[in-house]
What we know:
By secondary structure, the protein is an alpha+beta fold. It is 19% helix and 23% strand.
Amino acid sequence: MPDHDLQDYLFDLRGYHVIKQAISAELLEELNTSYDRFPSLNYGQWWGNVQRLDNNGAAGTELQNIVEAGKPFEMLIDHPAWIDRLQTYCGENGSHLSGLFLDECFASVRRTGGFFPMHSGNHEGLVRTQYRYVNGRFACGQVNILLAISDIGPGDGGTRVLPGSHKSSFIHPACAAPYAERAALEDEIVDGAIEIHLEAGDALMFVDAICHGATRRTNPGERRVAIYRYGPSWGRTRHGFVYSDALLERVTPAQRKILQPMQPRRPNESRKLEA
């Protein structure tokens, strides 16, 4: 059982937390089998209700709305390794708006080359990604789960974070140049940033307000991760995806509440009215 007092302290201090062996070996195997079976898609092409939308083409393939790709991905929606902390950090626990929303979910496969420049940080002042602790309660705008589907060590293109930057009022000088200009580099050096190494099955939980990016991959093979971003129940999906009726009917009531916190209100549909 995790020590939530210590975890909360370190999350507040650093802006991230590593969950060791977050998922079972069986689920990890099922996820890797799913990755093996991904079709080859062009940018923008659809596979059912999943779409390839790469954030940075040089840094890998991203299949968005991956929760529509089968049972293993559905199991991650409210996985017990992280769901209660997400509810605490960004689910507005204890308020009349209590609940979570799945802001974005995608599978990423990166081979050699490419990296993500460091980005985000509290200096941006964005509500959607903010870090807040107010009146004895966390009120973060977005908290991310990066699940390692493969081992991620030196040379594998690991995630970089700048601890404490989720509270900083200033942009790091190394990140002040335009993003596009930095993305054209081979890599970048950001003093104070650390690279997070993960074993397959580990998960990195971090608030999106922390300055973060990824190192250049130099090893052969693939870096496989699944990224699920969560926010408070009143949000909407980042790219405007709408979940299929088949998925909403198939998942558990708790999972459906995360995918669709508020059922659409339409004329002539039976719905319980609240006072």
